[in-house]
Amino acid sequence: MAIAPGRPTEQEEPENPLAAGLERQPVAPTTLVIFGATGDLARRKLLPALYNLAHEGALPERFHLVGVSRKEKEDEDYRGECEQAIRRFSRRKPDEDVLCGLLDNVRYVPGTFDDPQVYKELGTTLEEFEKEAGEPLNRAFYLSTAPSFFPVIVDQLGESGLSHHEHAQVRLIVEKPFGTTLEEARELNRHVLHIFEEPQVYRIDHYLGKETVQNMMAFRFANGMFEPLWNRNYIDSVQITAAEDLGIGTRADYYDQAGALRDLIQNHMLQLLCHVAMEPPVSFTAEEVRNEKVKVLQAIPEPTPAEIPAMALRAQYTSGHAGGEDVPGYLQEEGVPEGSVTETYAALRLEVDNWRWAGVPFYLRTGKRLARKVTEIAVTLKPVPHLAFSQDGSLGVQPNQLVLTLQPNEGVSLRLGAKIPGTRMIIRPVNMEFLYGTAFLSQSPEAYERLITDAMRGDATLFTRNDEVEAQWRICDPIVKAWSAKPGPPVAQYEAGSQGPAEADDLLCEGDRWRAI
Amino acid sequence: MSRIDAVWSEQGTTPDAIEGALRRLLVEIHSEHHDFVPARVLNMIAFVDREWSGEIANRLRGVGRYHASRMVVLSYEPDRERLDARVMVAADEDHAPGEFSLLRETVVVELGDRHLDDLLTIADPLVVTDLPTLLWSPHGHHEIVTDLLPLAQAVLLDSVEEPDPLEALQRAACLSEQAYVVDLAWLRSTPWRERVAAMFDPPWLRRELGMLSGVTVRHHPASTVAATLFVGWLASRLGWQTGRLIAHEGELHGKAHGARQDVEVRLQMAPELQVPGLEGLTIDTAAGHSLSLDRGPGGLRARFADSGQEDREWTITGASRGETGVLGEGIRQALLRDPTYLPALDAARAMLA
């Protein structure tokens, strides 16, 4: 290939003076290879995200997409499928010229993921792109397949020599779930890191790509007024809720294997907890931020089998009413095995045993078919030590509560005590509310748009590091094991459309209560 | 389609009455619809000639979500004696149950010459306190901008609309001493600046930034300012001393002095371009490379020429923002600060001086 052998690496070069001050930073020329290119994630999320990046001029100067999947088809057929997916799922109506320009750079390689011939053909395709470009192109391999294929693909990428490139960066983007147990996560990490180096690996937790989650760091570390209160001396408890009003829909195959604990708590909700509890990082580089998050996870004690019944609860929804309609219970949903004990609701009480948080309970709960869709973090402060006035005839002075709502209406609400107008000193709680949507003009990009761009730019801040994944599993794995034992603990029940199981109250410390969903 | 559209109007009114009407409309809407909340991002004051106010309203309608949260249009008709006003509070979009929808407020004040001396006291009560205010006077009226400047943190300009490019740049520089200037002429070059920065980002090409030998910018005949600002940006980022450009055979050309060598600068008019801004550019390096970008369907058409090798061409995808997109971006930029604009402006002024 007649391209720049021995060209200097990025590390040896001075900074690009033209990039300073630009809102959109350059992204190196890249070929993105999606394994599982015809799957649901690719169609619904990845392809629309790529289109929107193309529309905004945010893709690299040279960008190629290669789809790899088992089904035999020609490039043109795959382009047609990409076009359909983009037209159906893109957040904006496609511009025909831009769509055409994007599709022109799409290729397809058919075959099974364990077939060395697939990787040979893929290698040839990648080299053709580089020859055409006259320069080395970075490579990003996106594993959007069933997790069982992750090791197979990683092995083949290693054996075919595609995992490294002398003159360009090679990156591996891995979708969740990263293992279904601690042992699986460790094994997968070993496997991946046998072929790739950790800085090459981008483990996706798409929650981290949401603007709302990133806003939490801005809220905590750009506002000095909260920091003095942000510790065990002033905070009584933290409650993190991710509630959905929908059932499992057509996802019974996946969901019955996963359950609420693996689906949301092990990854997304522990990440939210980390954002609440982490120390301010020295800088917002990937390593500094992830170091601080890992410290939080390491400070959460691994639950022992004896502790689990008192700190973890699982439940399933029964038939009920949601959105004004009768809805079936989990066991009556299409595709759910008879007698399944998979939890559609999980609640945990965790502690972060460090100087800042010792003794403060962190409550996490998530569930399907609850009263309403909401994701929020409620930080309850300790009550005032002394009241100088009577509470007769009032709702009483309640502790201040700071609620960070992630969805549906991203915002911050602070519960304060205020005097009811009148001749007596009667107090009731009022809310001071801020909605992010009222204060910004821009529309937030989809999480995958941000994450794909970051991975192509080599910024791993919003991706999960190997030790982070294992630290998350270290907390959840004992609970997974306890719940999958036969016979396991009972599965509580809650009516669809309700606040969740009554038994969840048993997890609470004295004086605490769940916020209404 | 608007879900909420509350209107108030009064002839022979006062700023106090207008402000009171705004508060009343918001309270009335909020008491009936808790999920409608007022946007609180940015005030924008537009001083417009009444005969062109419809055109300005159309342009502003096109900016969609970049609409200022409170828009105050001062519609000027020289002979008008009476102060009339119209207040509209509207939510543009339907919204999902459980989600809120934003209310945006528009105030149109009809005024004449007799009100100009007190313009500041008319506009001041109408802007939301503690929100940044963007000032725009699309039909000239420089003296009005000066009068209203104490209210504004940012001024929106379109330097390509000024007849004399140097005067346009001088004016931008002068205003920059008192407020943050958002120049649409500068924003029209943003995609070009991003692309040039990205094209020279690969390490092997980045080193050639120190050895550029020529820059040619092709621009709309009225967009000399946009082209000059682009070259000014390159000059300020790469540490060139810019020299005066000379008009010759329909183009401006001259030299900038880099650390290692001189850079030939050419600004060429592209009469075929239908919209303000740039049509294309070519950057040559002393190593024999030449990079070109030109407008094309679905993005910019890139060409890389390497002496002794075959030229390579490809498309860099990106949708055109159109003029309404540029205006919307101008409004959004009022909330940001671009540290590269002023150095580029200084370098550009030196080229046209």
Put simply, the count of helices of chain A is: 12
- How far from one another are the termini of chain B? 50 Å
Largest interface: A-B, 56 and 54 residues
Structural class of chain B: alpha/beta
What is the count of distinct domains of chain B? 2
Count of individual beta strands of chain B: 18
Give the oligomeric state. Answer: heterodimer
Query: Which ranges of chain A are low-confidence, i.e. pLDDT below 50, for 5 or more consecutive residues?
Result: 1-10
CATH class identity of the largest domain in chain A: Alpha Beta
Residue-averaged pLDDT of chain A, rounded? Answer: 92
The helix content of chain B is 25-40%
CATH superfamily of the largest domain in chain A: Dihydrodipicolinate Reductase, domain 2
- The CATH architecture classification of the largest domain in chain A is 2-Layer Sandwich
In whole angstroms, the N-to-C terminal distance of chain A is 61 Å
Biggest pleated sheet of chain B: 9 strands, mixed
How big a fraction of the residues of chain A is strand?
Answer: 15-25%
Strands across the major sheet of chain A, in which order? 16-15-14-13-7-12-11-8-17
Number of strands of chain A: 17
Q: Which term fits the overall shape of chain A?
A: globular
N-to-C order of helices and strands of chain B: EHEEHEEEHHEHEHEHHHEHEEEEEEEEHH
Number of helices of chain B: 12
Give the SSE layout.
The complex is a heterodimer of chains A (517) and B (353).
Chain A: E1 30-35, H1 40-55, E2 63-69, H2 75-89, H3 96-104, E3 106-110, H4 116-133, E4 138-143, H5 150-159, E5 170-174, H6 182-195, E6 201-203, H7 211-221, E7 235-243, H8 252-277, H9 286-298, H10 308-311, E8 312-318, E9 320-322, E10 325-327, E11 345-351, E12 361-367, E13 374-381, E14 401-407, E15 411-419, E16 427-435, H11 447-457, H12 466-484, E17 492-495
Parallel strand pairs in A: 1-2, 1-4, 2-3, 4-5, 5-6, 7-12, 8-17
Antiparallel strand pairs in A: 7-13, 8-11, 9-10, 11-12, 13-14, 14-15, 15-16
Chain B: E1 4-10, H1 15-32, E2 36-38, E3 43-49, H2 53-61, E4 70-76, E5 84-91, E6 101-111, H3 113-116, H4 119-123, E7 133-136, H5 142-148, E8 154-157, H6 165-176, E9 180-183, H7 184-187, H8 190-199, H9 203-206, E10 212-219, H10 224-238, E11 241-242, E12 246-248, E13 251-257, E14 262-269, E15 278-285, E16 289-296, E17 299-306, E18 312-317, H11 322-333, H12 341-352
Helix pairs in contact in B: 6-12, 10-12
